Amino acid sequence: MGIGGSDMYRQQILDHYKNPRNYGEIEDATFTHIGENPMCGDTIEMDVVLDDDEETISHVAFRGDGCAISQAAASMLSQELPGTDIEELQEMDRDDIIDMLGVDISPMRVKCAVLAEKVAQDGTDIYFGEKDIEQTITED
Ligand code: FES
What we know:
alpha+beta, four-stranded mixed β-sheet
């Protein structure tokens, strides 16, 4: 799988990959956004529901195709994000995702790890009119 780290974390990643949490669609999501890792063509599409205050994330669902790391990161993030403030989401970076996964990620696989995070961040920016893109492409 190209990842190092303890067995416990590797097991956790495989569990999220095989039994993704919050997999599916949310009808009437506040916004939906899709991203791709151009290295492999793998995708994550995410639905996000914001609270009425439009500051707090209340629900997240995703669907996608890809490697264990990209799909497990999306699954874990879908559990982490509800209750999170939009500003906290925008401040997340690759280190937060690597911490969440709990494994060493080779530079090649970082794009897999951050795909879901970038999709959530870009989707938010598009919704609030701060970005105008069709699709997220993982750049780093
Ligand atoms: Fe495609 Fe990981 S190999 S996202």
